Amino acid sequence: MKVAMPRKPIIRTWKLHQSFGSHEVLKAVTLEIPETSIYAVIGQSGTGKSVLFKTIMGMLPPDGGKVWFKERELSALSPDALLAMRKSFGYAFQNAALFDSMTVEENLAFPLKEVLRLKDRDLIRQRVTELLAWIELPGIGSRRPDTLSGGMRKRVGVARALILRPEVLFFDEPTTGLDPVLSETIHSLVVRVRRELGITCVLITHDIPAAFRIADRIAFLDQGSIIAEGSPGELARSDHPLVQAFIRISFVGNTAAPSREPGA
Ligand SMILES: Nc1ncnc2c1ncn2[C@@H]1O[C@H](COP(=O)(O)OP(=O)(O)O)[C@@H](O)[C@H]1O
Ligand SMILES: [Mg+2]
């Protein structure tokens, strides 16, 4: 039996609170995301998953609690240091958010020019070409995003989030609107990002079977609180009625109980 080695956390939160006016969206969210893991956040719509992402990424300052990236606590950083630290985070937008007025190559080159201030055209072209080959879409550099299929656009969106070589890549519902076959190509891509590039992947998804298949750990968020967290096997054994109901509904027709342990 393979024993999973405990990994140290790359991101930690402690009692995170987030409110909009009187609407308390996050209530004391404490979690640890292990380095080079795939970490899935699941839960019903409107329960605070995207707000949790934005708070962790430093896009929304929390009303209470703390976020650490490695040993650095975000609220202790100056605005410049926070901006520099955010370069360690990549974010794959739900709709890919590509510029349709630019070619695919220009879309991928954009962060290299604007954020990293790279000027060497050959180097930029080389990084873009390598990455397009890596996402298995070589030769589409001169096309415009609006001429690509939905699945291709999503992969280019992931490539654009990868071009700055982040340490953590966040995916918010990356398979929404995709059919099961295309969803699988995105999940395979997440697995490769972690395995081949060693990047920690944090994933919000409502595809529960996929979360059980690819994630090392899963957090179940309900109305701003984590009600269950652990390996897929641990989550499957949670006796929380909402977690049980969610899993039961998601695995309807699936006779195999979700019992995978990491490394199994
Ligand atoms: N910028 C905002 N201003 C006010 N309310 C917000 C804002 N962002 C999110 N909310 C509210 O916070 C709650 C959680 O939203 P969200 O995190 O997007 O849910 P989900 O779990 O579906 O990702 C929702 O009720 C939403 O309306
Ligand atoms: Mg959301």
Please name the defining characteristics of this protein.
single chain; about 260 residues; alpha/beta; 2 domains; four-stranded antiparallel β-sheet; binds adenosine-5'-diphosphate; binds magnesium ion
Shape: globular
At the first level of CATH, what is the class of the largest domain?
Alpha Beta
Number of domains: 2
- Distance N to C terminus: 8 Å
The major beta sheet can be summarized as: 6 strands, mixed
What is the oligomer described by this structure? single chain
Tally of strands: 10
Q: What strand line-up does the widest sheet have? A: 6-7-8-3-9-10
CATH architecture of the largest domain: 3-Layer(aba) Sandwich
**Class from secondary-structure proportions:** alpha/beta
Beta-strand residue percentage: 15-25%
Series of H and E elements: EEEHEEHEHHHEHEHEEHH
> Residue-averaged pLDDT, rounded?
91
Helical run tally: 9
CATH superfamily of the largest domain: P-loop containing nucleotide triphosphate hydrolases
Question: Could you please say which CATH topology of the largest domain applies here?
Answer: Rossmann fold
User: Which ligands are bound?
Assistant: adenosine-5'-diphosphate, magnesium ion
Helix content: 25-40%
Radius of gyration over alpha carbons? 19 Å
Would you identify the regions where 5 or more consecutive residues have pLDDT less than 50?
none
